[in-house]
Known about the structure:
Blueprint: H1 2-11, H2 14-43, H3 49-76, H4 84-117, H5 126-156, H6 159-171, H7 173-182, H8 184-199, E1 207-210, E2 213-220, E3 224-229, E4 234-238, H9 241-244, E5 248-249, E6 257-266, H10 271-283, E7 293-300, E8 304-313, H11 316-337, H12 353-359, H13 363-367
Helix pairs in contact: 2-3, 3-4, 4-5, 5-8, 10-11
Amino acid sequence: MRDFFSQLHDTTPVWVWTGAAACVVLLIVLFGMRLVHRLALRATSNHTVSGLIVRRAHTPLTAAVAVAALNLVWQAAPDDTPLIGSVRQVSAVVWIGAITWLLLRAVAIGGEAVTELNPYDAADNLRARTRQTQARVLTRTAYVVILLVGVALALMTIPGVRQIGTSLLASAGIGALAIGLAAKPVLGNLLAGLQLALTQPIRIDDVLVLENEWGRVEEITGTYVVVAIWDQRRLIVPLQYFIEKPFQNWTRRSSQILGTVMLWTDYRLPVDPIRAEVKRLCEQDKDWDGRVGIVQVTDTSESTMQLRVLLSSVNSGRNFDLRCRVREGLIAFIAREYPTYLPHLRAEVMQTASARAEAAPPPQALDAPATSPTPTLPQRE
Length: 381
């Protein structure tokens, strides 16, 4: 039996043994990773962060472990094995690609975990929106860095490409300058994304007013921000815009907000009944948070006075609905209870002297008799 195996070893080519060893190792790795994956799924829940990690990281982790095991086989193979140098080279590049894939998946899992642990559909969602914004911006920035490092490491394993890259960096100064100028917007947005993630001038679901448009931050990517306008349009804004230009953020510290309702009324309208009606309307409205609900006379004109109703809500959307309902209720209240105190246009009709003269009868017509006899002159014969 020993002689049989010895003869078989001597007569079989080396590449056959290497290929057989690679297949056996690959099957063992795939079976082992499959078994570990099933055990991990049973030990975790699909609705937890650990379950998310098990589900999402299985495929790239299996690829990285399998390629690493194959690399050990290629390194253990004799150097005189046909094409072993090329196989080792390709395997190294594939292993770097698998590690890059695994790192990208790990970053994505981290971002998804932050999103699941911090939902921003709650009433007080300031902390959740802050963490989600940081996670999204940093995740996309990490994507770019990992891809650049992975591609660079893969190219460095190929001597020819590495020499070409070195010569280009050393000699092509003008080309490098042109590439730098061309990449300036990309690099600027990348740095702006990092600054947005650290300083937090905007966050996911923030209410913004920019370019004379009102909307909410719907998405933050690596290069631009998507703002959902109230009429279902989408405003695409580069990241650098929020670093270089001013804009309004209505939810910077809190989602609570104050809104106003402006009314023009007659001077004779009593204000106290209006205050009582505003209080009644607010107390029966679910969008009023109970903080502010006051009425003030803020301005006057030649014929009317301006009433400002200041109302508070937990967010801008509910405040807008509250203001509309209070405005409608006040208009109906004034029209019902004080209809004559709505804005009036006052005018004084004056008659000029010339108009009076034209309207009066002529003086001679008043003094002359009804009939006047015609005098007769004597005739000469």
